[in-house]
Amino acid sequence: MDVAELSHLIEDYGKDIYGFCCKLTRDKHQADDLYQETFLKAVELCHRIEKSKNPKSFLIGIAANIWKNQWRKMGWRHRIAKFVPFQDCSNDISYMDNLATPEDIMLDNELDTMVNMALESLSDRLKIPLYMYYTAEMSVEEIASALKIPTGTVKSRLYKGRKEIKRYLEGEGYEGF
Q1: Which of 47, 49, 89, 174 lies 20 to 30 A from 40 at CA?
Q2: Where is 48: in which H helix or E strand?
């Protein structure tokens, strides 16, 4: 694959990868940096990207590995990694439709906030596969190949992550999850 074909990948998967970067970093500026570093690394590795083998998972795997390396370096330098407060960098999605009541909108926003807090409490080991599965809409096999781990491990981490989120939400008074 050459650089021209890589620009087509950016057009096809750029929004998905940027959304993944936003969810992972929880900060617009860090997401921008991670997004740029991902595609810089992709330019270096463009000879390894095969269009027939789902390049989206390859690119998201690059982003996840860069993020893990950054956290490892920061943790090494500071011995304790500081958490960045959540700032949603996705487009403002309007929940206002003709059928939604203000109460429904408030409950949805509250639930979203609680789920995000639950995700914050998870380790990257559980959080990254969840983001890849739900945000980037990747299959278990694609996540496994991107993170270079067995599919059983991905399934296990997804299960444990969901279980931890459920436990957190039940502890906060939400039932039926």
Answers
A1: 89
A2: none
Asked if 140 contacts 155 with a C-beta cutoff of 8 angstroms, the reply is yes
Q: Two tokens at 94?
A: 């309007």
Dist. CA 54–CA 121, nearest whole Å: 31
Which pLDDT belongs to residue 176? 57
| CA gap 21, 117 in Å, rounded | 18
Best CA proximity match to 121, nearest among 168, 57, 64? 168
Task: Enter the tokens of residue 50.
Answer: 């095969």
The residue among 60, 177, 56 whose CA lies nearest residue 128 is 60
For 114, the token pair is 């609680």
Residues 6+ apart with CB under 8 A from 20: 60, 63, 131, 132, 135, 136
Q: Give the SS3 label for residue 113.
A: helix
Do the Cβ atoms of 85 and 28 come closer than 8 Å?
no
Query: Measured in whole angstroms, how far is the alpha carbon of residue 58 from the centre of its chain?
Result: 14
Burial of 151 (0-12, 13-18, 19+ CB in 10 A): middle
pLDDT tens digits, residue range 27-43? 899 999 999 999 999 88
Contact 158, 129 (CB under 8 A): yes
